[in-house]
């Protein structure tokens, strides 16, 4: 009975509300980050499940850090065309250009291909319209077309530095790959846009069925110059796994910092409670309360504050990110973000917050057992 009365007395102090709010704000940060990361991981896993060309390989320069940096001799593709076990040979030139359409200007990736029809076929793409056949025509990915509100027959402008051309969109394709954010043009259009026409960026190819892949790749490697490498294209599952693991690692590091602050806040809260309740705790000791009762009161108070702060913080963090994403979606319809928090994550946040609070209040709770009688005017 004495414990219950004393416990309620401590909770009724004004410091309780302030402490709960402080813990709630810290927990809200962790909950909001978790909810956003959950959405990003879900989208990346969905991307990994998209249709993509399997058994496809890319040839690019050895020292390139991106496909836009890669430079291969144009005649290299001719050497590979004569190999009997190679199919779908697609030399490509990757350019970064400014796309100007519907009063919008944005930097995009342009893929110049000799055989656009073959390229779309390897990706199982659906095409609304026709294949671009000359430098005045282009095919655009569905996602890019939506971003610029581009329709069939629209005229768009492409610019690289001082070079500038206008093309007509004759087809909009959906491949469910990263190409849906790109613009496809014939190779001759790239020759007009870019200064150097003696190189290409990559050569994409696949091998015929029932071919020894290791032996075929070894024979192809013999034909390649020393500064050229072969890589397998679109290993989406491996890429997604690495991204998710890196994200989780970052999240764990960030969470450790937040929980350390929670522990520090609990220490301050417990210390302040002991200071402000010095008289009440001393009276309990005089009335015969054991040292264990006083320390248990401080511990129970801190756990209660941490529990209530966690519940409020989880609710604030999750609801806050969802409200923010809804507002962003109203302002920018193309941005669709739906953050969510898993039940097991909420439970983990709750338990870790309580554990951090207990760690933070252990020393003040132990110190409270040494409180002596202090005379105060009633």
Write a concise keyword list for the protein shown above.
378 residues; alpha+beta; 2 domains; six-stranded mixed β-barrel; two-stranded antiparallel ribbon; 11 helices; 12 strands; 53% helix; elongated; disordered C terminus
Plain-language structure description:
Helix 8 packs across helix 10 (291-331). It is elongated, with a radius of gyration of 32 Å. It has 378 residues and is an alpha+beta fold. It has 11 helices and 12 strands.
State the gist of this model.
The protein has 378 residues and is an alpha+beta fold. The protein is built from 11 helices and 12 strands.
Distance between the termini: 24 Å
- Give Rg in angstroms: 32 Å
How many E strands? 12
Strand content: 15-25%
Going by helix content, strand content and strand pairing, the class is alpha+beta
Q: Counting H and I runs of at least 4 residues, what is the number of helices?
A: 11
Average pLDDT score? 79
Characterize the biggest β-sheet.
Answer: 6 strands, mixed, barrel
Strand order of the largest sheet: 3-4-9-6-8-7
**Helix-residue proportion:** 40-55%
Number of self-contained structural domains: 2
Shape: elongated
Poorly predicted runs of 5 or more residues: 373-378
User: What's the helix-strand series?
Assistant: HHEEHEEHEEHEEEHEEHEHHHH
List the helices and strands and how they pair.
Layout: H1 2-11, H2 15-48, E1 56-61, E2 72-73, H3 76-81, E3 86-101, E4 104-113, H4 116-122, E5 126-129, E6 137-141, H5 142-148, E7 155-160, E8 163-174, E9 183-186, H6 187-193, E10 199-200, E11 202-207, H7 213-223, E12 228-232, H8 236-276, H9 278-286, H10 291-331, H11 343-368
Parallel strand pairs: 4-9, 6-8
Antiparallel strand pairs: 1-11, 1-12, 2-10, 3-4, 3-7, 3-11, 5-8, 6-9, 7-8
Helix pairs in contact: 1-10, 2-8, 2-10, 2-11, 8-10, 8-11, 10-11
